[in-house]
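Q: Could you write out the predicted structure for this multi-component system? I'm mainly interested in how the pieces pack against one another.
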Amino acid sequence: MKKDVLIVGGGITGLSLAWELSCLGIQSILIEKAPFIGGHVSQFACKATQTCQRCGACLLEDYLSKLPRTNNIQMLVGSRIDSFSQAGREFNALIMQRRSGVINEKCDDCGLCEKVCPAEGALFKSPLDSSLHISNEKCLKSKGISCEACAQICPQGAIELEEKNRELEIQSSAIALCTGFTPFDASQKPRLGYQRVPGVLTSLELDSLLRAENFQLPQSSDGLKSIAFIQCVGSRDPKSGANYCSQICCGVSIRLARLIKSRHTETRITIFYMDIQTFEREFDKTLDQTKNDMMFVRSMPSEIRSGEDGRPEIIYHGNDDTKQIVPFDLVILSIGISPRDPDLPGSFPALWKNRDGFIGSEGNDVAAGHPGIFVAGAAKGPKSITGCISQSILAASQIKKYLDRIKRGE
Amino acid sequence: MTRINLNDLDPEFKHKIAEQPGGEGLKACFACKACTAACPIQPLDKRYDPRKIIRMALLGMKKQVLESDFIWLCSSCYGCQEVCPQNVRFTEVMYAIKNLAAREACIPPGLTVQRSLLKRHGRLYEVGDFENDKRLKFGLPPIVEHPEDFEALLPDQSVNNTPNHGATT
């Protein structure tokens, strides 16, 4: 199959890039490793209170509704580049597509399979359209155990566990890497208690909990509700290899805090920070309004431990110059953006890596270090949703220029 | 709040600390207070506050830092170093500061006494006939002092104890 551009990654960057290219009349094919498109943004909640907080989570749904209107884009989910070669200016990628074990047209969402599945998390729902999927990593079948419990119980015959791989050869003139990021693994900082102290969650987990409707905050026995946000977990942290600001976490935490405050006005919110960075235009005004609603403490905790009443306790140095040990009902670690391995075959050309381990140069350009290969979005460095989209627009225009040059034979 | 006279500050002080082995990370501090929150000494003596010592050093408050007695309070537990996200390695910075203080001859009297004991006896406690008689009763060999190595290691040095030390120790 011949296409103009091969887009790797079906998150907000890949989708917006595909749309922008399509507007310029460029044919593209988008491949996504997960069984559904949407990437990280599909887990984010709309953070509107009475008014829109401009978090950008709804922009994904915008693109998803726009994309079927064009014939210039083809999408392949569950796919990765298996092997790669280059002849002159032409890239040749062999795509391996793993078919999801659930045939969504047949599935009527009766839930029987989820009840019998012995492996936790092996059957999961796409956060976008609640379609059911089988995780290739967690399903026992992939570990060589002959379990077919879900396929046997399904009354619709909608589950096929036989592996169906499809290979597809794609020739393209340009490749755009929109492989996104990995959320910082908060368990790398055991002092902050993640996965060790009950009641400590990451901002990403809180976001996806809030996305689910009717989510209620856990409440302690005396009815008191207090939430703490810890900023810069895995950002501005050379010790964990992240000597950069992740740019999004302050905005995420403050929006989440405002959202919770609007739903539960009696909740006391404390934000522990070392330096609030508001990268978006006019966000400083939002911050000023927020300062009356919640407490900002300029102090990083030294430790988060489980208190005697089972609630997490934060040890920090207070503004009054004394050591404070304060229990909270919920502690949210505002995790940063870490670089992600793009999972490319060994024959793929060597790419630039910037100082922090992201793909591309230190500057704002979208070149990836090899002619015809471009990079955009969080794969290039920490970025907000709107930041990813604006870089897609830049990448689309650069790709168009490059394709025009090739056509002219330059 | 004490006033700081800019004319009394030494702008070279932070560079001097950063030149010492272990002092390199000083200038990376973000003042996030994680070190102070982890410090076991700070709740006992408010004058010893890692974050404040770093700020004083960065401001160039050389006299106030080197001539103080609180810099000697560090217990070397390395708690601050563990929690620091910026890799400041504050315990090592404290060694650098204490080395500078010793070179500038600002050592508290307790340490001066220890130094002279070490130089005279080769150990921190004098071993006399009393101890050796007791050892003999238990069938242990007597201890012979060998201060020669320490004499070479610790040359004569005029040590001024600042009035500050005299007042608190």
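A: Regarding packing and overall arrangement: The helical segments of chain A are 12-23, 58-66, 112-116, 149-153, 203-211, 249-263, 283-290, 385-407.
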